């Protein structure tokens, strides 16, 4: 309806200009003399130009957008180049180029999304702007709008061009030393860059298949007998694999939570340890335990596109732990809020595995309730560590931003 109204408005302006032109011409014809014809010829450009502009096909312009880089780290800058090409060099007095930024970028970036250029007879116009401090996330660019008009601004014409584009901004992270990861495992020496040899000679029994189990562990005889996939159980089988669970409940430290998780991922994979991932926001989309650069890229993409979820999701995910948590892995839970109820839920799945809970906070001194909660968690075999983001404590000694 709005589009029809704009068309009707444009045609009404065009008709008014034509009527005004005829009126001035009629006055010059009947009145005669130098003054009347001077007024007619002086007024002629201001009438003919809008009429020609009305029929000039601005929507036939060829518009392209290029990014200096399609992937970056949070806080970095991205240069955007817009190129506008046209076949016929019709004189354009001005051209307003407006980038319709995604909401998240429009809110966070200080970029000048509207640029006024004076192309006149130029066939190609190129302009560049910078997106400074691009926030974490997957930003989809959709369209760009061009607007032009006559000398006096009485008649305007615009066109919108759909130009899909994407910038993927990964979270920033800190370099964590190997020593800072020692407390994640049952023994400080378990984390090693040497690949852990899982194949054991002593088989103690069979158990149900768990996500992350190798096919070589499958006991085919037991599988055929029970009509369900069964895997071998090894004696004293100790895994150094890590599984990260990110509690994505909304909080004031949500972005810091993403940065800390990214730092853990970087440090764990850098030291040759395999890692899996699950979040309360997308609990059904689990990354199996893997290692290497491909796994790191997948994990960073999840963190880049992560969004806050309801606080109740942690309880739901814990209740369904058999569906996503592999057998015998070190579980790391990263959260910004921890309660006694959370500790009870985590303790239900902490059997036969090491569990560490990292809770981010902004206050350096621990409250009495937090100290008691940490002691209660330790009694249940859970290491609860409070990470202070306001100061460089033991967990961040020697950490440098990257």
Structure commentary:
With 402 residues, the chain is of the alpha/beta class. It has three domains: 2-55, no CATH class; 58-170, Sandwich (Immunoglobulin-like), CATH 2.60.40; 174-196 and 239-401, Rossmann fold, CATH 3.40.50. It has ten helices and 18 strands. The longest helix is centred in the first third of the chain and has 30 residues, at 2-31.
Key attributes of the depicted protein:
elongated, alpha/beta, Immunoglobulin-like, six-stranded mixed beta sheet, Rossmann fold, 10 helices, 3 domains, single chain, 402 residues, five-stranded mixed beta sheet
Helix content: 25-40%
Strand fraction band?
25-35%
Number of helices: 10
CATH class of the largest domain: Alpha Beta
CATH topology assignment of the largest domain: Rossmann fold
Largest sheet properties: 6 strands, mixed
Overall body shape? elongated
Give, in order, the helices and strands. HHEEEEHEEEEEEHEEHEEHHHEHEHEE
Structural class: alpha/beta
Low-confidence stretches: 183-201, 391-402
Supply the CATH architecture of the largest domain.
3-Layer(aba) Sandwich
Provide a brief overview of the structure.
This protein is an alpha/beta fold and 402 residues long. 32% of the residues lie in helices and 28% in strands.
């Amino acid at each position: 309806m709005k589009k029809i109204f704009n068309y009707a408005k444009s045609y009404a302006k065009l008709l008014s200009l034509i009527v005004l032109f005829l009126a001035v011409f009629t006055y010059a014809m009947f009145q005669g003399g130098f003054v009347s014809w001077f007024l007619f010829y002086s007024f002629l450009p201001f009438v003919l130009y809008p009429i020609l502009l009305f029929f000039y096909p601005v929507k036939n312009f060829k518009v392209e957008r290029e990014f200096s880089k399609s992937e970056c780290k949070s806080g970095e800058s991205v240069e955007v180049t817009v190129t506008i090409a046209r076949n016929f060099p019709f004189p354009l007095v001005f051209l307003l180029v407006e980038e319709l930024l995604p909401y998240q970028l429009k809110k966070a970036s200080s970029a000048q999304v509207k640029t006024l250029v004076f192309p006149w007879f130029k066939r190609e116009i190129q302009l560049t702007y910078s997106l400074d401090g691009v926030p974490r996330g997957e930003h989809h660019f959709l369209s760009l709008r061009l607007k032009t008009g006559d000398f006096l601004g009485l008649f305007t014409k615009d066109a919108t061009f759909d130009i899909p584009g994407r910038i993927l901004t990964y979270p920033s992270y800190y370099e964590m030393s190997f020593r800072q990861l020692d407390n994640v495992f049952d023994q400080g020496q378990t984390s090693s860059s040497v690949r852990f040899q899982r194949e054991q000679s002593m088989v103690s029994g069979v158990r149900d298949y768990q996500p992350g189990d190798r096919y070589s562990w499958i006991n085919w005889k037991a599988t055929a007998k029970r009509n369900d996939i069964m895997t071998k159980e090894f004696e004293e089988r100790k895994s150094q694999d890590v599984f990260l669970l990110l509690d994505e409940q909304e909080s004031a430290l949500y972005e810091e939570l993403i940065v800390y998780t990214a730092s853990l991922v970087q440090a764990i994979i850098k030291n040759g340890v395999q890692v899996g991932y699950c979040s309360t926001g997308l609990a059904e989309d689990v990354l199996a335990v893997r290692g290497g650069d491909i796994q790191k890229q997948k994990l960073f993409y999840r963190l880049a596109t992560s969004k806050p979820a309801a606080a109740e999701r942690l309880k739901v995910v814990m209740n369904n732990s058999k569906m996503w948590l592999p057998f015998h892995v070190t579980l790391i839970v990263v959260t910004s809020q921890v309660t006694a109820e959370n500790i009870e839920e985590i303790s239900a799945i902490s059997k036969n595995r090491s569990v560490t809970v990292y809770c981010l906070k902004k206050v350096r001194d621990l409250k009495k309730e937090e100290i008691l909660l940490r002691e209660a968690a330790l009694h249940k075999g859970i290491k609860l560590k409070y990470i202070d983001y306001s100061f460089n404590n033991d967990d961040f000694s020697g950490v440098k931003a990257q």
